[in-house]
Amino acid sequence: MVVMKFGGTSVKDAEAMKKVIEIVINSKFKRKLVVVSAMSKITDSLIDVAKNISLNKEYSLHKLDEIMLQHLNEVDNLKLNDIVSERIVLEFDFLKNEVTNQKEFNSEVYDLFVSRGELLSSFILSKAFEMKGLRCYNLDSKEVIKTDSNFGEAKVNQQETNKLIQNKLNEIYKNYNLVVAGGFIASNLENEPTTLGRGGSDYSAAIYASALEANELEIWTDVDGIFTCDPRMIKSAKRILKLSYTEAGELAYFGAKVLHPKTILPAIEKNIPVIVKNTFNPSSSGTRIENEKQNIKMIKAIAFRKNISIINIQSNRMLGAYGFLSRVFEIFNKNETSVDLVTTSEVSISVTIDDIKNLHSIMKDLEEFSLVSVSHSNAVISVVGEGIKLTAGIAARYFGVLKGINILMVSFGASEVNLSIIVKESDLENSVNLLHSEFFSTNLDNEVFLEVN
Ligand code: ADP
Ligand code: ASP
Ligand code: MG
């Protein structure tokens, strides 16, 4: 069986959904589970609705009308019957009622609203399949993906979820070969809606694939696969034909938006190949991500992420004393903030974080035994590939080509497959361009990279 995930642009309107249907029909697999995102930009709009719930109810209600019309328009364009439109209107009646009755915005309210985008897109797509004469089951992911109550970025209860998915799908597959489910959404033990974090539909698809031991996990998006760099920034980026799980995981973690960072782990656990493909160019072979052994060891790609904060922690009192680092990390642990890059000297330590929600409390705790300074608006740039450690002279080339740029932090050696630096955001584009032309202009292995332009 196959799990096929289609992102927001792939279901952005009726035309796109028709392409999705064609791709699903042409799939060689008999059993298919289709996971969809909300229609493009709908999640942003729903966040807007939720955030204005106590500030400006009129605005939220007006925005809901706009979102409803967007959906009804596509239902019309797909020529679906009136029952579908009526169901959608009812759904929006419910949401408008919630806007009127909710007193304040909080993370529960956030998930109540944002989870609606995927419920709507999966419902519409399943009806469009039925119109094409395909028997199709519209599964509500809230029934089978179980999480904690960390609304907005909930943690999946893997065991419970696997059991529920297996039981439910075993039943459904007795009568249906095609299931359509919304990505991104789940529920807690009290059955309240939760979500898995922005871009989380890829992760949902991986959870389903792992629970069902799928033969393949396909991520269908709006580019031909994974490129040597974000093709929106680097026009000459090349498509990567093959990546290892580790490489893809690092690229996703360090900012390649094409895959949600949590997607790879469930695939690794069951050794499921992940294929990234383009809904708007399905004949392109895409990028295949699998086991390390199948992969040639070399530098594969550059990823970057903005909005990085650097925290410098200095403590003369800790000079020569043991326990400094552990004390620092305990504080990040207590404040539930994950640290990305770390550099240390005898009396100081610099760390980067991207989630500054608890920064105030972190600073307060650190200031009890050290001097702390923070700088915002930085970016992390990571060159990724299994060949990094094996290729002589990488660091020299890396720093040589960036000789005019102020590099604020370096992390090399911690991971076998990644060399990361921190620069100011204002230096990001220039640095990425310089690095890309240094590493990906000439002498590329045509077993690994495909020239696009
Ligand atoms: P979807 O809605 O299908 O999940 P996303 O917008 O989340 O799509 O991810 C696809 C986008 O990821 C592409 O349009 C591209 O701009 C961006 N991207 C960032 N880095 C890369 C990369 N290395 N290769 C391909 N795409 C990338
Ligand atoms: N719709 C959600 C988002 O925009 C999830 C996803 O698209 O993967 O973040
Ligand atoms: Mg995405």
How does this structure look, described?
This protein is α/β, with parallel strands linked by helices and 453 residues long. The chain folds into 2 domains: 2-222, Carbamate kinase, CATH 3.40.1160; 301-450, VC0802-like (2-Layer Sandwich), CATH 3.30.2130.10. Helix content is 37%, strand content 21%. The chain has helices spanning 14-26, 42-51, 57-77, 82-101, 107-114, 116-131, 158-172, 201-211, 245-253, 264-269, 324-334, 359-366, 394-401, 428-440, and strands at 2-6, 32-36, 137-139, 178-182, 185-187, 193-195, 216-221, 239-240, 242-244, 274-278, 287-290, 301-314, 342-344, 348-353, 371-384, 409-412, 418-424, 449-450. The strands form 4 sheets. The chain has an 8-stranded mixed sheet with strand order 3-4-2-1-7-10-11-9, with helices on both faces. It has a 6-stranded antiparallel sheet with strand order 13-14-12-15-17-16. A hairpin with a 5-residue loop joins strand 5 (185-187) and strand 6 (193-195). Helix 3 (57-77) packs antiparallel against helix 4 (82-101) and helix 7 packs across helix 8 (201-211). It is globular and about 70 Å long. The mean pLDDT is 94.
